[in-house]
Amino acid sequence: MSSHILLIYTGGTIGMGVNAATGVLEPLDFALLLSHMPELQDIPAHVDVHQFDKPIDSSDMSPSLWAHIVDIIVDHYDDYDGFVVLHGTDTMAFTASALSFMLENLTKPVVLTGSQLPIGQLRTDGRENLITSIEIAAAKGADGHPRVPEVCIYFSGKLLRGNRSTKVNSEGFNAFDTFNFPHLADAGVKITFHDELILQPDYNRPMTPHKEMDTGVAVFTLYPGIEETMVRYFLNAPNLHAVVMRTYGSGNAPQQPWLMAALQEASDKGIVVVNITQCAAGPVEMARYSGGFLLKNAGVISGFDGTVECATAKLMHLRGLSSDPAFIRRSMQRPLCGEISISG
Ligand code: ASP
């Protein structure tokens, strides 16, 4: 029996066309573009399309639209074997991270994809990305369960864990990667799944959706010359509940007493500060240099080898579940769905 796949079109370049008046790319009705893809008839899967009422450029993605995607998946969960989410590349890694926490114990594939060139253009990467994503969402293992029951990104031959992914190129077709985690599958002449890396849910438990996301989460980057007044202003922002602090190297920071005091005060107020490195690859190890060690003493917790996108989405999710800083600190320091590897 062929698989049933729901294609959720949110917008992004893949479905865009050129506005004749301004010359800029704008989201179009995707059903129109799908009619130009006769290849879809050849895929051994039945594909239905659910389109956002108003497709967006993913720069306009938001926690309430994440909740809308969750609603669409929940409403159709029993009717489909897998879901493909067509999404702009700019914020795809944030959405993939958020969905991985919002769909707890996911038992079906949710594959996000998009493209760098619109699907209607001659050299588009959208066709291959879309067709392979549908194939992956439809793939079943020998036991009849889906081959990839997790939130992932498929792009340019690589299937990546969604909450480990980062957009790495604004122009090249090879737009995504996971620097701290291997690919879940590689698509060449055939698709090679790395089954030992793929998350396995508990099929005896239902998938549990979570839609509350707290937006009192902010990201800030350390840099040489950072001023005390600016850091203090930031840490005293109203409604600030959690911070992703982008540090140097293995989680290092300037050893300024004012910085440590400001972070300690934030932590004492219940603001959870998570240490994520500015490096693309490698983990935070706060015990390695004295700057990191001082941060730890000031109440900053390690983000291990997680990405900024994922730490931000995870903090929003955890704060949506509870306002207890102890719960958030504890949960940030263990993997919920493969988003970090604990070390050092
Ligand atoms: N600006 C577009 C978006 O994120 C870029 C893309 O889809 O590649 O929606």
Commentary on this structure:
The chain is α/β, with parallel strands linked by helices. It has two domains: 3-209, Rossmann fold (3-Layer(aba) Sandwich), CATH 3.40.50.1170; 217-332, Rossmann fold. It has nine helices and 18 strands. The strands form five sheets. It has an eight-stranded mixed sheet, with helices on both faces. A four-stranded parallel sheet has the order 15-16-17-18, with helices on both faces. Helix 4 links the parallel strand 7 and strand 8 (151-155). The longest helix is centred in the N-terminal third of the chain and has 14 residues, at 63-76. The N and C termini lie far apart (48 Å). The mean pLDDT is 95. The structure holds aspartic acid (ASP). Aspartic acid (ASP) is lined by residues 11-13, 57-59, 88-90, 114, 116.
